Amino acid sequence: MKLKVISDDSDVSKTGKSPCVSCHTNCCKEYVIFVNAHDIYRLSVRLGLTPEDFLEIYGAKDYDLGINVKEGLLDLALKQKDGGCMFLEESNDVFRCTVNDFKPSVCKSYPFQIKNGKLIQMSGKMCPVEWNTKEFENMMSNHLKKDKDEWKFYDELVLEWNAKYGIKKPLSVFLKFMLDRVVLEFTKS
Ligand code: SF4
Ligand code: SF4
Fold this sequence. Notes:
- The protein has helices spanning about 25-30, 35-45, 50-55, 105-110, 135-165, 170-189; strands spanning about 35, 55-60, 75-80, 80, 85, 90, 95, 110-115, 120.
- It is an alpha+beta fold.
- It has one domain (about 25-189).
- A 3-stranded antiparallel sheet has the order 1-3-2.
- The radius of gyration is 17 Å and the shape is globular.
- The chain binds iron/sulfur cluster (SF4) (2 copies).
- One iron/sulfur cluster (SF4) binds near residues 5, 85, 88 and 99.
C-alpha cells in the first residue's frame, strides 16, 4: 500500500486545531513509507545524502533491483529505526518529523486517499482524528494532483527501465537514472 499522510502543520480537523502536534504519530511508526522518484530527489538534495543512505528496497526477492517485471514496479521505502520512520524524532514524549518541509508525498496526504475519483478518509486507518474532508481537499488540491502525477511519472520510469535495461543492474545505476530523469523534467518545465 502506498501510504497517504497529512501535513503536521495543517489545520483541518473538525476541532479546528492540528492534532498531529500532540499525537504520538502512530502513522509514522506503523506504516512502511513508500517513496517515488521526486520524493527521493527532494530528500537527497535537501539532506545531502545519497538515496542509498535512506532507502530500503522491497520486493527484491526475485531480482537484484526488486523490479517486479509483471507489475512493472520497484518499491523503495524509507528505512526505519527504533520501530518508526528514520526521520521521526522524539523529545519529552513529543514526536516530530525532521523532514517536515520536504517529507514524502504520501506523508502529506495521509490519512486521505482518492477512491473512484473521490477524496475520502482512509478506512481502517490508525489516525484517531476525524478530519474535515472538504477543507483538506481545498487546502491540498494542488498537492493531491502533484502526488498523482509524480507516482505516474515513477511507475512509467520503472517500466522504461525494465524495457531498456532488464533486471540485473546495480541499484545505484537505477537511482542515478531515476534522479537524472527528475532533473531533466525540472529543466523542461
Ligand atoms: S495519526 Fe493522525 S493525528 Fe496522529 S500524526 Fe498521524 S495524521 Fe496526525
Ligand atoms: S517522513 Fe516524516 S511524516 Fe513521513 S513517516 Fe517519516 S517522520 Fe512521519
